[in-house]
Specification:
This protein has 8 helices and 23 strands. The chain has 473 residues and is an alpha+beta fold. The chain folds into 2 domains: 178 residues, Bactericidal permeability-increasing protein, domain 1 (Super Roll); 260 residues, Super Roll (Bactericidal permeability-increasing protein, domain 2), CATH 3.15.20.10. The structure holds 2-acetamido-2-deoxy-beta-D-glucopyranose (NAG) (2 copies).
């Protein structure tokens, strides 16, 4: 019996239990405070929908005899939530405490007595000292999106005050007890379910988390949660997969995310940590898709450049080229031979690439005749920044190292060609790459979320975005 239960428990532990996140999102108390402000209005609206059923009955009142009474048309006029606190409960979730709240309402009263006597009027009523305490759990749903639920709730009312208009004052005392009793019942029954409603109204919004964010025709980023959020004294931390995939086929790269945690900063509402794993999974996807390659022809080199892609320019350094292929234009194919490697050091994002350059002569009949293949190792520095709801970047060349791979034109010195290839990287390859990087990569987002004053810093092994947020609808 024990073994069976134990095995059942083990089976319940999700397989992602040991998966490190590629992206970590931290919601601070400042962020929670913003959520609280949005929550007040929502709960206020809900409480305004409380309905109080008509109350009627008959009571013996000496010396008059039987008095029939009814209270009807009770309507909520206002709900005040002067104290509305949201606190983090480590390990559990969020505690919501409403205190000193009031609900004011009005209605009509009507009585019949001594067979033919009738009277009616109106009343105003205020319920004071309303307290609601509820705990909200935050979990990951089956799609890896956050979901919230009420785990308990208690509501109480401390006093009611009623003011009658019209009628005889001896009647008032009679009603007061019945109104209070009917009202307490109605409120006790409705407040917690309404608060639970307001809480679960959050779920459709949480469902808008872009668990698969499309980047371009090749790639998408998975932002599903790899485990339930963890709640500490000062924040709620969300562990997201943060992995680039090829849209057509999800394939795991030969490396996995390392554990990382965000610094204890709390001055912004939200912190987003993007690991080198995430960046390198992008490099893996694009390299694997074969899109990290570029054919370069002379018309892509600025007119002002004295260096042209032809056998005359190259012939100046490799005489065999000028001799065997006089007067021809050339074409270069630059491509990666393995996934570029991205590293983050404090204030330093670097991309190292191992690639090749193949040079061709373009024959008059358009045939490409290969001249040589060079190995090209390069390192670029990346400037990374937040643009809208995306991370974008631009790179500049750090250094470049050329060695001869294969030559079809005999042996030659590579070093003298450095300037040509530096120029090719700087004026053709890097601008193309930068145009791509400027388009950006979507960050995890919820609904119509805007980042306000987002700052990005590169730290050891991850980038940290600190930002405030604003929901616009
Ligand atoms: C940045 O990091 C790379 C690789 O870790 C290193 O080669 C380079 O020198 C660093 N640049 C600066 C400016 O620190
Ligand atoms: C194109 O021209 C080259 C050089 O003259 C020649 O070797 C090759 O056979 C030609 N190819 C075709 C398809 O005509």
């Amino acid at each position: 019996m024990f073994l069976c239960c134990f095995l059942a428990l083990v089976a319940l532990i999700p397989s992602s239990f040991s998966t490190n996140p590629g992206v970590v999102v931290k919601l601070t108390e400042k962020g929670l405070e913003y959520g609280r402000q949005l929550g007040v209005a929502s709960i206020q609206q809900k409480l305004k929908t409380i309905t109080v059923p008509d109350i009627s009955g008959a009571e013996k009142v000496p010396p008059i005899g039987k008095v029939q009474y009814s209270l009807s048309n009770m309507k909520i006029r206002d709900v005040g939530l002067p104290q509305f606190e949201v606190d983090l409960v480590p390990g559990t979730g969020v505690r919501l405490a409403i205190s000193n709240a009031f609900i004011s309402m009005d209605g009509d009263w009507r009585v019949k007595y001594l067979k033919f006597m009738k009277d009616h009027g109106s009343f105003d009523l205020t319920v004071k000292g309303l307290t609601v305490i509820t705990s909200i759990a935050i979990k990951s749903d089956e799609t890896g999106r956050p979901s919230v639920s009420n785990i308990n709730c208690a509501a109480s009312v401390s006093s009611t005050s009623i003011k009658f208009h019209g009628g005889a004052s001896w009647l008032y005392n009679l009603f007061t007890t019945f109104i209070e009793k009917g009202l307490r019942n109605a409120l006790q029954k409705q407040i917690c379910p309404l608060v639970a409603d307001a809480v679960s109204d959050l779920n459709p919004k949480l469902k808008t988390l872009n668990v698969l964010a499309k980047v371009d025709q090749y790639a998408e980023i998975e932002y599903s949660m790899v485990s339930s959020p963890t709640v500490s004294k000062s924040s709620i931390d969300f562990s997201l997969k943060g992995e680039f995939y090829n849209i057509a086929m999800h394939q795991e790269p030969p490396f996995a995310p390392s554990a990382f945690s965000l610094p204890p900063e709390v001055s912004n509402m939200l912190y987003i940590g993007v690991s080198t794993f995430t960046a390198n999974s992008a490099a893996f996807v694009y390299n694997k898709a074969g899109v990290l390659s570029l054919y370069i022809t002379d018309d892509m080199v600025p007119k002002s450049s004295p260096i042209r892609l032809n056998t005359r320019t190259f012939g100046a350094f490799v005489p065999q080229i000028a001799k065997s292929f006089p007067g021809l234009l050339m074409k270069l194919l630059v491509k990666t031979v393995k996934s570029p490697v991205i590293t983050f050091e404090p204030n330093n994002a670097t991309i190292q690439t191992a690639g090749t350059v193949t040079a061709y002569a373009i024959q008059p009949n358009a045939t490409l005749t290969p001249l040589f293949v060079l190995n090209l190792d390069s390192s670029v520095s990346a400037k990374v920044f937040v643009s809208g709801m995306s991370i974008a970047g631009s790179v500049t060349l750090n250094k470049m190292d050329l060695t001869l791979g294969t030559s079809y034109v005999g042996d030659f010195q590579v070093r003298p060609l450095d300037n040509i290839f530096q120029m090719v990287l700087k004026v053709v390859v890097i601008p193309k790459l930068n145009a791509k990087l400027a388009k950006g990569y979507p960050l995890p987002t919820l609904g119509k979320m805007k980042l306000v004053n987002a700052q990005l810093q590169v730290l050891k092994d991850y980038m940290l975005i600190g930002t405030d947020v604003q929901f616009t609808g």
